[in-house]
Write a structure and sequence with these properties.
281 residues; five-stranded mixed beta sheet; three-stranded mixed beta sheet; 12 strands; 44% helix
Length: 281
């Protein structure tokens, strides 16, 4: 069952789960401001997590939502979108006529969470980043691979989206084009694959908490050859031809969806700057 509201259990660091983060109260106030500015509207937790992710980790916003439910600020109506997907809509106190609002948002969530659409979004992001790397002098050595230069990853069924090379430095690339964070377990597996295949981890993620970046990928204290890079690009990438739907996602849900023709050069430049400094090339 896919639940679009609860933060995955492996996402929140154990130490955060054991104590109450004072940021939770700040997140509650930020949520109330979002609700007030929206007028009559309904929400769901993942939506609020993404809208506030520049200020709070997803799990902090999720915890704030749960407390606001307990306090009666939100009531909850669960809607089944498909056989294996559901969403718990948050109805702010004072919003009486919510059935039409729930249907409108639910139809959008159902469409963007359909497996065929999510697969197309993943492929689109892979293609755009592959093109961007190629334009900037990176050579593609493999796509959707778990084997490189005679070594094959056998510990799981995972693969890497890309293996690219420039200046004799080889990177194992994972592109994640989703609203939620990559799970900590998956991130660790991808980095472990890169270590095993003797390539440098390059995680291309829409969003990620700093704790993921520094402890799982950048790995401060390790030798330079083991440290990877996390390239954050912020906006959901939808396939060409879905501009109208991306507009609905932005307007109705307030989520950052676009149908770009290419990756912003500024994103690639951040990685190039790190690449040149790290390897002295």
């Amino acid at each position: 069952m896919i639940d679009w509201d609860d933060y995955p259990p492996d996402g929140e660091p154990p130490e955060e789960a054991q104590r109450r983060d004072p940021k939770t109260d700040e997140a509650k106030e930020a949520i109330k401001k979002v609700v007030k500015s929206a007028g009559p509207a309904v929400f769901y937790s993942r939506q609020l997590e993404v809208r506030l992710e520049r200020e709070f980790f997803h799990w902090v916003t999720n915890r704030a939502v749960r407390e606001l439910i307990d306090e009666g600020f939100f009531s909850v109506r669960e809607v089944k979108l498909a056989a294996s997907a559901r969403v718990r809509f948050l109805i702010p106190r004072g919003v009486r006529y919510h059935a039409r609002l729930i249907k409108k948002s639910g139809d959008i969530v159902k469409q963007y969470s359909a497996p065929t659409f999510t697969s197309a979004c993943g492929e689109q992001a892979d293609m755009l980043f592959l093109n961007a790397f190629a334009v900037n002098g990176f050579r593609c050595l493999g796509q959707d691979v778990n084997e490189f230069r005679g070594k094959k990853w056998m510990k799981s069924n995972h693969d890497l989206d890309l293996i690219i090379e420039r200046d004799e430095i080889v990177y194992g690339v994972e592109v994640k084009n989703t609203l939620d964070y990559i799970s900590r377990d998956e991130l660790r597996t991808k980095v472990a694959m890169c270590d095993f295949l003797e390539v440098v981890p390059l995680m291309v993620l829409r969003a990620a908490p700093k704790s993921y970046i520094w402890t799982e990928v950048a790995r401060a204290g390790w030798g330079a050859e083991h440290r990877g890079f996390v390239l954050l690009y912020g906006t959901l990438i939808y396939p060409f031809g879905w501009e109208q739907f991306a507009g609905e996602v932005r307007t109705v849900l307030g989520l950052p969806a676009q149908c770009p023709r290419g990756i912003e050069q500024g994103h690639i430049n951040r990685f190039l700057g790190w690449h040149r400094k790290r390897w002295g090339v």
